[in-house]
Write a structure and sequence with these properties.
By secondary structure, the chain is mainly α. The chain has 13 helices and no strands. It has one domain.
């Protein structure tokens, strides 16, 4: 309807934030779920999806929200059974992400496992209402995502795709097992600590380590830490407008303005798709926590959120460093083995070539 080169940024910023403020004004339970799903859908789909793909996504949403969460609820009373169930889902999610960084089912499984585990184990929320709540939020986000493409048409061309490896090392089972176990331990530790930012920290770490390319891991650790930390600072003007008691429409306008600036910042930094999604997921979650925080210590609460995400980035960077070191050691070992095999092969071929030269030397001596 409205044709503009900035439409991909407008729909990513305006859609989730407008939905967030509407659900918050209606006192909807867990109003952050639908905007967060909408960010995921908009970042994974750079252009308007066909109706056949929308139906496929709807089936995926129903499977994840109803099927997986229902099975998780049945296993909730069995600690070992629930642990193995979550570990299996995380393994499947990371495996699919390694094969396709834009796999929607893998991303939804990761987010749903984190939300389901923290809400049921830490917040002691009733698991019976969670499947329907997730399904309603995901379906609403899916419908509004399609409508946003109709209102603001245009393909996303400014965000770089995630790098992928041409060889088969992206599906290395040892790496996926390490990531799955590490993510499970992080979730257990966050629940044991009882931090109010457990969901934000877990989503940040999970989004960081789901990438398959070791070079991208190193790039994230070195450069994207600064990008993500600075991206969090874009929520401070929103916090100030809300703390001063300004009208809701002013807070919404400031959030949209800061979101547009964040998108421009990410494009100037040549941010890849996975980091772009992480930036806006954190931005929407932080805005939600700002507008739902009641009290005079808003600045202190914002600093706590900033420190929490910084800790998450550091933990994710350490995990990626361990993965990069392990991958480098494996490649060096394989290179050494191949070199040794080549040397052995050449040493075996050398004696067999020697007798062939003797008749030629004897003929030259006779002449």
């Amino acid at each position: 309807m409205f044709h503009s080169p900035a439409n991909p940024i407008i729909r990513l910023v305006f859609g989730p934030l407008a939905l967030l403020f509407y659900l918050w004004s209606q006192a909807a339970p867990l109003a952050i779920l639908a905007p967060m799903f909408m960010v995921i859908f908009l970042t994974l789909m750079p252009s308007r999806p066909p109706l056949s793909l929308m139906l496929k996504l709807l089936l995926i949403v129903l499977f994840v929200s109803l099927g997986l969460v229902f099975i998780g609820g049945l296993l909730l009373d069995s600690p070992s059974g629930y642990l193995l169930f979550c570990w299996s889902l995380l393994f499947w999610s990371f495996y699919r992400s390694h094969n396709d960084g834009k796999d929607l089912l893998a991303t939804l499984m990761l987010i749903v496992v984190i939300i389901m585990t923290i809400m049921s184990k830490q917040m002691q929320a009733p698991i019976e209402v969670l499947p329907w709540l997730l399904m309603k939020s995901a379906v609403l986000a899916l419908i509004l995502t399609y409508l946003s493409f109709l209102l603001f048409p245009g393909d996303e061309q400014d965000i770089l795709p995630d790098e992928t490896q041409a060889d088969g090392s992206s599906a290395h089972m040892g790496t996926i097992l390490f990531k799955t176990t590490a993510m499970t331990i992080v979730l257990a530790a966050l629940i044991g600590i009882g931090s109010s930012q457990s969901m934000l920290i877990a989503i940040t770490i999970g989004s960081m380590i789901k990438l398959a390319d070791p070079k991208e891991h190193k790039s994230f650790k070195q450069n994207r830490l600064i990008t993500t930390a600075i991206g969090i600072l874009f929520t401070f003007p929103v916090m100030l407008t809300f703390a001063f008691g300004l009208p809701t429409w002013v807070v919404l306008g400031m959030a949209i303005f800061c979101g547009l600036q964040l998108a421009g910042f990410a494009i100037r930094r040549a941010t890849p798709l996975a980091i772009y999604q992480l930036l806006f997921t954190n931005f929407v979650v932080l805005v939600y926590q700002i507008i739902t925080h009641i009290g005079s210590d808003a600045l202190y609460a914002q600093l706590v959120r900033l420190i929490s995400i910084s800790i998450a980035i550091i933990i994710g960077g350490l995990l990626l460093s361990m993965l990069h070191h392990e991958t480098g050691s494996t490649d060096e070992t394989e290179l050494t083995d191949e070199t040794g095999a080549d040397d052995e092969k050449r040493s075996e071929e050398a004696p067999s070539n020697a007798p062939a030269k003797e008749p030629k030397a004897a003929a030259q001596a006779g002449n």
